Amino acid sequence: MTETLPTDWTRWARRLAAGVLGVDAALHVYWLTGATWPAVDERALSLAVLGFPAPFTARILIPLALALTVAAVALWRGTGRLARLIALAVAVGTAVQVPPRLAWAVGLGSPTDGAVFRWLNVLLYLPLCALLALVAFRVARGGTPMRVRAFRL
Q1: What tens digit of pLDDT does each residue of 35-76 get?
Q2: CA distance 99 to 97
Q3: Does some domain include residue 99?
Q4: What are the tens digits of pLDDT across the range 137-153?
Q5: What is the pTM of this model?
Q6: Comparing 92 with 145, which gets the higher pLDDT?
């Protein structure tokens, strides 16, 4: 016996992916103002967010914020081919981050010895990347219902 999940699942998946991307875009715009929250300075922010020192300059932040915003809007509003391609790009981009983040979570080859990055990676970045990859792959499938096999013991 095969059952399908409700079609609302696709809408939920699109909205969840768009919401995560939108929050990420808003953070990049916020950092563009020169603010460094949740860190005390730019170096601490870089170490907490990226795991290594990097500049938070307009040349880097503006394209990231724009790309994240475009992806968020496309996933929130669109169900067509472009939205599916963007969802696939988001899925691949986040899925490739899962193996190294998992390795860092268990202490292998961590880009930094900073405790802040390690905890943020374990509690936030790794789960969000995994969830966003799964959800975005679902959206990229184009709304075809997921099939769940029911079995009896």
Answers
A1: 998 889 998 888 888 888 889 999 999 999 999 999 999 999
A2: 6
A3: yes
A4: 988 987 555 555 555 55
A5: 0.84
A6: 92
Tell whether 147 is covered by a domain: no
Q: What domain range is 21 assigned to?
A: 10-141
Domain-located, residue 123: yes
Number of domains in the chain: 1
SS3 of the chain:
CEEECCCHHHHHHHHHHHHHHHHHHHHHHHHHCCCCCCCCCHHHHHHHHCCCCCCCCHHHHHHHHHHHHHHHHHHHHCCCHHHHHHHHHHHHHHHCCHHHHHHHHCCCCCCCCCHHHHHHHHHHHHHHHHHHHHHHHHHHCCCCCCEEECCCC
